Structure formats: C-alpha cells, structure tokens
C-alpha cells in the first residue's frame, strides 16, 4: 500500500473581480479562408471531441468567451496538447499535466498526483502516473456530462464541474506548484485515491478518526481510504500542493495568495534573436510562484529564482525549480540558414557533387513521377528530390533545376486531383487538414486522420511546395491558398484563424511538440522523431519565406529554434553532463551513456522506438532529414558520441546504409574528412536522402583543419573491361547471358563488360546482350547478366583491395553488402562478409 503524499491545503475567501488581459497575439492569422475548397471537401472523424466538454465554447463567429482567453470560432480545438485526453472520448484519459502534476477527469471531479517512483530500467527513465487525490464537491451528482471546459489558451485550460447553483472551477496551469480550485456555493470534497490519510494538521489519524480545521474535516476511513470535506458550502479558493519536503513550506506559504488562471504569449524577433514572453494572468495578491524545467533555465532572462533547495520536484524532464514573477522572457538564437548551406561546397567535393547531381536528376522522368498515396512516405521521398534543385542552384548547375521542378510538379499535382487515392480534406469536428481516407481508420498514414504526426507530414509537404514555388511563380500564384491550408494546420499563430488551432503540435510549456493526436482517447503524449519535428517547422519556414511574408517566416524560425533546443536538451544525451547541472534533465549517468533518446513521452523517455531496436535506427530518426538548417542541431559533441556509440553497427554490412548515411552526414559537423571517407562506402541512401544531398552536406561543413574534405574519393574503374581473377582465369557469361564464372583461359575467351557510373558504385553490363549483371540479395546464387535495367541489385562497389598489389580490386554487391568470390565450380557468388576473404580481380581494358 502506498501512503498518500504530504498535502498542503490553503484556503482563501472569494476574490472579487474578473481578470481582464488584452489578447497579446502579436501576429495576425496566416489566413482565414475556408478550407472546404480542398479536393477532399469536408469530413468528420469518427473520434470527435466530447460534445459536453466543449458545449458552451461553440459560440457564433467572433464570440469572445473570456477576455483573457482564446477567442473561439467553432470548431478549432487542440488535438495534440497536454490536456487533449480531457476532450477526446471517452474523456477520462491521463493528461500530460499540468506538470508537476498529471491529471484526469472523471464523473465526480479532477484527479491528480505527482509520480514519485522515477526509475531507470537500462533503456528508459520511467515516472509512472500517480493519482493521489480527487477534488470535487458534495453537491455534484457524478453525471459525466456535468463538467466542461469554460476557457483555454495555448497552455492552460479551465474546467468547471457544476450542479444546480454549485460549481468548482479548476485552473489547470502548467508550471504551477499548486492545484487551484475555485468553489462557488459548493461543499469541497477531497478524496484520497492512493492510500489512506495518516495525519491532518499535525494530528495522527487512525481508522475512523476525524480532525477539523476551521471549515475542513479530514476522515481516515480505512488504511486505504480517506476524505477531506468542508462543513458547509464554500465560496472561495482552495489550493492544494504536494509537500515533498517540510522545508519547502515557507516558500509555498509565502506565495499562496496569488494564482494563475491563464497565460498570454507574445513573440518578438530582432535579427537572429527571438524572444518568447509568457505573461500569466493572476488573481489574488503577492508575487506569482512558478516552476521551471531545464529548457526554461537555459533561455530565461534575468530570472528571480529562489534556491533549488527552497522547492523542487523531480519529474520526467528533470528537476523543476522555483522562480518568481508572472512574466517570463526567454531568448532564442535563430538561424539565418534557409534554402542552402551558408558556405560553398569544398573544392575537393564539388566535382563529385555535380556528377551525383547529374546522375540523380537524369533518373527523374515526370511521366513516371509517383502519385501521392500518403503524406509521410511520399513527402520524405519527394522532399529529398526537391533538395536536388536547390543544390543545383548553389553549385551553378542551373540547367538541372528545371527537370527537378517538372518532376515535382507532376507528382504534386495529385494533391489537386479528386481521382487521387489520398485526398486532403478539412475535418470539421476538431478543425484541421487530414487524409480523408484516414478520418475513420487510424491505421491510414500513421493516424494522420486522428491528427498524429501532422508536423512530420506537412513539413515535407511544405518543403516540396516551397521549392516548386521558388522556381515557378505561376505555380505559386495558382496554388498558394491551397498549400497554405497545410501551413495553417501546423504553424497558425493566431486565435483569429477561424478554422485552425494555434500551433497544433506545440506544447509551449514543455518546450517541444507532441506527435500524438486524438487516437485511443488521446492517450500518452509522445514524439519519436524530433528530427522530423524540426523539419516540420523548417518546411513551414521555407513556405512562409516564398509565399507568406517575413513575419510568418520569422515565426516559423522561432518554432524551429525552440524545437532544436528541445532536441538538444531532451533527445541528445551527454555522458559528460553533470548530475547536478540545472540544465541536465537526466541525472542518471547510465541513461546518458545511451547517447540518444528514441522517444519522449509524458511518463517515460527511453532509447527505444516503437518500430526498431537498432542503435543506428534510434539515432538516425533523430537526425533525418538531412537539411542545411540542421547544422545547428548536429552539435559536434553529440554527433561524435553517436558515431562512437553506433560504430559496431556502422561497420556491419547487415545494417542498412540508409540509416548509416544520415549518421555520417551529421558526423561531418565534427569531422568532415572522416565522414566523407565513411560515406564513400555507401551504396544506398534510403528514400529520404540522396547521394548528392549527402555529399553536399558533408562538403559544406565548417572545416577547421582546412584540409580537403573529400580528398580523392574512391571510385569504380569506368569503361569497357575484361575481368580477370587473380587465379588468372577470366570472367565469362553463360551463352544465354546467365551466370558468371571465372573459367576463361585467356582474354580472347573473356566477355566484355561495360562499367558505368552510379553514385559511389557502378553497374556492369554485358556488352554482347546489353544485360546488366545482377547479384541476388541472399548471396546463394551466382551473379548473372540477366537484367534489362539496373536497380539496387545491379550495383557494385569496386575498390582497390586492401593488401593486394595495385589494380587488384574487390567487388562488393550493393544488394547485400557482401563481397564476391570465385566458388569451387568457378561461379561468382556474393556471400563473403570480409574483404580479405573475397577474390581479387583485375580490370583489363577491352
């Protein structure tokens, strides 16, 4: 049995007056037009918000609910915020706040507590949710419909329970050490949920004992049950606080007379400096006491902060410490990187970048551009393709821009077609752009229809659109409003947009975004891929730059900087961080040794993913996509640690090159020359990266040594060759163009192969039948010249073999990363893990 945590109760009489605070949104809306022009029209999710919860907030257009809260126009409700479980059916899920508390709503009242069992299991830090108390009142009948939201803003929500003329309003404000309840003509009832009441006002209670305190009576009903109830109806404020340490009471008592009811946010940007201001509206008298997390303490300007020993709570995000004042000003350094890297490609890399660019652009055929069947995979692939146009611009290959744009437009056009499989539609129950097919199927596009991952999906979408618009102003003019619906979905800064909530995914107090939406009752908040969260705001920034104007571009820059800061604080792990460092959220040294977090949730943070357990996967998903703006996020210390931590998998050919590629790119921020050498071993860059982008990023890194970054990159021998094994035998193909074997006694017996360029590798084509040599992925079959077109299985990395004389090469198949050897019957098979065990070959000019 757990004992109920020490509780401090503070009561005051009713505080007269209604708080009035000018709405300080400093930015107007991006747009206000109706999204019903989307090709999918309008649709309603099968998981709408509880009608009872928002019923009195559904006013006519322009109705002002509270002068200090958000102006609501029905409907545009938060889907990804910390309190979404209050509103998403069935409405009783655990909310990720208001920290340091977690909470839930039931038919009788507000249940809340602070988890006290922080543990590390070797992979994750866990702080299981703990509900210690329920705040309610005697008159409430327990009907679930008899509670509702009466106001909310970007951080806080006010929930009211009501019965006839009695009510209790909970002001649920993240960062407040107190839980605050305003009673009107109601008899307060506090019920212990996690053990019995052991003492009250210093008197030890046993079963059946009571103890009165002016108006409140505590009763220990049993070892596991207890309640505190008022003797009569009460109008006034009741504040509850978990007293973790008796030494904290003086500070808590001193500031109990003032409490926050809402918070206004303001933003200001000057050059590359951005300031976010939190201004809490308060009632009562005195100086407001709030709590900070590590990311606040990094950027909070001139804080008036008592010593941490005066008050502290250890939460999943580390220690929360006190600070005084109802205004916080936090300053962030903003990047001025937009389309391309802030420096030119290193001369030693430029030729290879241009060769890769020519090859990869040459593969683009607008007639074969993919129809968009989903947001996520389509977006990642096409965004990587769109980088080719920007790189071509930067390196002066202007002739290669237009082929990329034509390809992008051919594919993007599917989003405007009613015949496309994936149709964007405006969802009317919550207010947002979703996949129409996903409105009633949570498995479509990772739950896009339930508002999962919108910043991931639409960041890619906006990146692609921004690149097209940059080079085709007519396309921009034609599609600007349509594409802007997607920007409004994720970066809307204003309550004056009648169709979208403010910054859907952003948790302004937690310091980062949440990817999880309303699925499963808006269950645990989580975000795996912080790299794609950053990219969401990067894509929005690019779109704003080309289509919306500098003010909204600056707002996106600010969101970008804040998400990158969160990545460094909560996703990047630093073994060297001090246990007592106030900006270190993870005192556990063994956890920090894991180098990178895979998933941040509301109750656990760990080095794991829902879908993969490899170190390279866990690290890479926090890095990708590789874009110029992320040189800010790839700090040298962390990427060096990532490289060391994942090195055993980087050296293992069984792990996918696609994950390795982004790790090498990030590592270039620390050691570009080494990164270039490792990158030269890749034969696949996945769907979200390209050879050109990889080498471009590496070649544009800060270069402290001034040594050539790329040096002399290894490459295949290109041209027409006869191939001779070191045994002296020549390679021939079966008469039908079948399997290859080292069986020719002389050059006159040998077949001729044309070796052609592909990035970091090459193809081998049998000249007499124009078929490409292919290597089975299993390595169980002999190589054969049997493919009319070349793809991954037809690529080979041919390099000088270590330990052999000049011009003796090893051949590695890209299909499985294995080296080729001559088997006992003379056939060539790709089944050798180590180069030293592979056969050496000479390439003799034909």
TrEMBL record:
<keyword id="KW-0963">Cytoplasm</keyword>
<feature type="domain" description="Glycosyl hydrolase family 81 N-terminal">
    <location>
        <begin position="151"/>
        <end position="339"/>
    </location>
</feature>
<feature type="domain" description="Glycosyl hydrolase family 81 C-terminal">
    <location>
        <begin position="352"/>
        <end position="679"/>
    </location>
</feature>
<dbReference type="InterPro" id="IPR022768">
    <property type="entry name" value="Fascin-like_dom"/>
</dbReference>
<dbReference type="GO" id="GO:0030674">
    <property type="term" value="F:protein-macromolecule adaptor activity"/>
</dbReference>
<dbReference type="GO" id="GO:0042973">
    <property type="term" value="F:glucan endo-1,3-beta-D-glucosidase activity"/>
</dbReference>
<dbReference type="GO" id="GO:0000272">
    <property type="term" value="P:polysaccharide catabolic process"/>
</dbReference>
<keyword id="KW-0624">Polysaccharide degradation</keyword>
<dbReference type="Pfam" id="PF17652">
    <property type="entry name" value="Glyco_hydro81C"/>
</dbReference>
<keyword id="KW-0119">Carbohydrate metabolism</keyword>
<protein>
    <recommendedName>
        <fullName>glucan endo-1,3-beta-D-glucosidase</fullName>
        <ecNumber>3.2.1.39</ecNumber>
    </recommendedName>
</protein>
<keyword id="KW-0326">Glycosidase</keyword>
<keyword id="KW-0378">Hydrolase</keyword>
<dbReference type="GO" id="GO:0071555">
    <property type="term" value="P:cell wall organization"/>
</dbReference>
<dbReference type="InterPro" id="IPR008999">
    <property type="entry name" value="Actin-crosslinking"/>
</dbReference>
<comment type="similarity">
    <text>Belongs to the glycosyl hydrolase 81 family.</text>
</comment>
<dbReference type="InterPro" id="IPR040720">
    <property type="entry name" value="GH81_C"/>
</dbReference>
<dbReference type="InterPro" id="IPR040451">
    <property type="entry name" value="GH81_N"/>
</dbReference>
<feature type="signal peptide">
    <location>
        <begin position="1"/>
        <end position="16"/>
    </location>
</feature>
<dbReference type="Pfam" id="PF06268">
    <property type="entry name" value="Fascin"/>
</dbReference>
<feature type="domain" description="Fascin-like">
    <location>
        <begin position="729"/>
        <end position="834"/>
    </location>
</feature>
<keyword id="KW-0009">Actin-binding</keyword>
<dbReference type="GO" id="GO:0005737">
    <property type="term" value="C:cytoplasm"/>
</dbReference>
<dbReference type="GO" id="GO:0051015">
    <property type="term" value="F:actin filament binding"/>
</dbReference>
<keyword id="KW-0961">Cell wall biogenesis/degradation</keyword>
<dbReference type="GO" id="GO:0052861">
    <property type="term" value="F:endo-1,3(4)-beta-glucanase activity"/>
</dbReference>
<dbReference type="Pfam" id="PF03639">
    <property type="entry name" value="Glyco_hydro_81"/>
</dbReference>
<dbReference type="InterPro" id="IPR005200">
    <property type="entry name" value="Endo-beta-glucanase"/>
</dbReference>
<keyword id="KW-0732">Signal</keyword>
């Amino acid at each position: 049995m757990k004992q109920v945590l020490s509780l401090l109760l503070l009561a005051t009489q009713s505080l007269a007056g209604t708080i009035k605070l000018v709405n300080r949104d400093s930015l107007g809306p991006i747009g206000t037009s109706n999204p019903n022009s989307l090709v999918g029209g309008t649709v309603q999710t099968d998981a709408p918000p509880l009608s009872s919860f928002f019923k009195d907030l559904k006013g006519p257009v322009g109705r002002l609910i509270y002068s200090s809260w958000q102006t609501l126009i029905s409907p545009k409700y938060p889907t990804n915020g910390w309190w979404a479980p209050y509103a998403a059916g069935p409405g009783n899920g655990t909310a990720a706040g208001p920290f340091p508390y977690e909470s839930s709503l039931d038919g009788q009242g507000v249940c809340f507590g602070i988890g006290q069992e922080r543990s590390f299991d070797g992979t994750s830090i866990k702080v299981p949710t703990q509900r210690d108390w329920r705040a309610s009142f005697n008159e409430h009948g327990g009907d679930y419909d008899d509670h509702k939201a009466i106001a909310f803003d970007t951080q806080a929500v006010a929930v009211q329970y009501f019965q006839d003329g009695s009510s209790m309003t909970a002001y649920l404000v993240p960062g407040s050490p107190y839980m605050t309840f305003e009673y009107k003509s109601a008899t307060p009832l506090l019920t212990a949920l996690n053990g019995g009441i052991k003492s009250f006002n210093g008197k030890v209670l046993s079963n059946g004992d009571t103890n009165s305190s002016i108006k409140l009576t505590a009763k220990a009903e049993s070892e596991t049950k207890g309640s505190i109830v008022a003797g009569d109806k009460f109008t006034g404020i009741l504040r509850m606080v978990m007293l973790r340490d008796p030494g904290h009471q003086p500070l808590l008592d001193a500031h109990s007379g003032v409490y926050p009811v809402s918070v206004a946010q303001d933003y200001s940007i000057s050059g590359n400096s951005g300031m976010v201001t939190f201004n809490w509206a308060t009632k009562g008298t005195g100086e407001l006491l709030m709590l900070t997390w590590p990311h606040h303490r990094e950027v909070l300007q001139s804080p008036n902060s008592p010593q941490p020993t005066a008050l502290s709570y250890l939460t999943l995000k580390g220690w929360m410490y006190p600070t005084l004042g109802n205004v916080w000003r936090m300053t962030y350094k903003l990047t001025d990187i937009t389309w391309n890297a802030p420096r030119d490609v290193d001369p030693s890399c430029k030729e290879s970048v241009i060769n890769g660019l020519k090859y990869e652009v040459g593969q683009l055929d607008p007639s074969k551009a993919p129809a968009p069947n989903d947001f996520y995979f389509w977006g990642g692939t096409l965004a990587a393709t769109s980088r080719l146009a920007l790189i071509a611009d930067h390196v002066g290959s202007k002739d290669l821009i237009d082929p990329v744009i034509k390809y992008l437009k051919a594919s993007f056009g599917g989003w405007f077609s009613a015949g496309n499989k994936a149709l964007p539609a405006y969802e009317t129950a919550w207010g947002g752009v979703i996949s129409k097919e996903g409105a009633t199927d949570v498995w479509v596009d990772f739950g896009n229809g339930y508002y999962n991952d919108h910043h991931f999906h639409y960041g890619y979408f906006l990146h692609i659109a921004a690149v097209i618009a940059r080079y085709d102003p007519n396309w921009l003019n034609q599609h600007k409003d349509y594409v802007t619906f997607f920007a409004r979905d994720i970066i809307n800064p204003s309550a004056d947009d009648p169709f979208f909530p403010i910054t859907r995914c952003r948790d302004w107090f937690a310091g980062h975004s949440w990817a999880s939406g309303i699925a499963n009752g808006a269950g645990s908040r989580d975000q795996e891929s912080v790299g794609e969260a950053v990219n969401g705001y990067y894509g929005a920034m690019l779109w704003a730059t080309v289509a919306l104007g500098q003010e909204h571009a600056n707002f996106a820059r600010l969101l970008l900087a804040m998400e990158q800061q969160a990545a460094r604080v909560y996703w990047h792990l630093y073994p060297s961080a001090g246990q007592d460092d106030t900006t270190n959220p993870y005192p556990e040294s063994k956890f920090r040794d894991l180098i990178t977090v895979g998933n941040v949730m509301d109750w656990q943070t760990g080095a794991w993913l829902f879908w993969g357990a490899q170190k390279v996967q866990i690290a890479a998903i926090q890095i990708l996509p590789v874009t110029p703006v992320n040189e800010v996020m790839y700090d040298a210390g962390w990427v060096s640690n990532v490289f060391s931590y994942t090195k055993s998998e980087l050296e293992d050919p069984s792990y996918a090159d696609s994950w390795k590629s982004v790790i090498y790119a990030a590592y270039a921020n620390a050691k570009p020359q080494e990164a270039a050498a490792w990158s030269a071993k890749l034969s696949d860059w996945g769907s979200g990266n390209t050879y050109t982008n990889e080498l471009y990023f590496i070649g544009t890194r800060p270069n402290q040594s001034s040594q050539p970054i790329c040096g002399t990159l290894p490459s295949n021998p290109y041209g027409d060759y006869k191939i001779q094994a070191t045994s002296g035998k020549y390679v021939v193909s079966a008469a039908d163009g079948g399997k290859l074997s080292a069986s020719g006694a002389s050059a006159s017996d040998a077949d001729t192969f044309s070796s052609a360029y592909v990035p970091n590798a090459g193809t081998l084509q049998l000249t007499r039948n124009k078929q490409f040599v292919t290597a089975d992925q299993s390595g169980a079959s002999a190589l054969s010249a049997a493919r009319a077109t070349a793809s991954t299985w037809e690529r080979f990395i041919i390099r000088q073999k270590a330990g052999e004389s000049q011009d003796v090469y090893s051949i590695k198949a890209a299909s499985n990363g294995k080296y080729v050897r001559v088997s006992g019957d003379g056939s060539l098979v790709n089944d050798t893990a180590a180069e030293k065990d592979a056969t050496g070959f000479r390439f003799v000019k034909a």
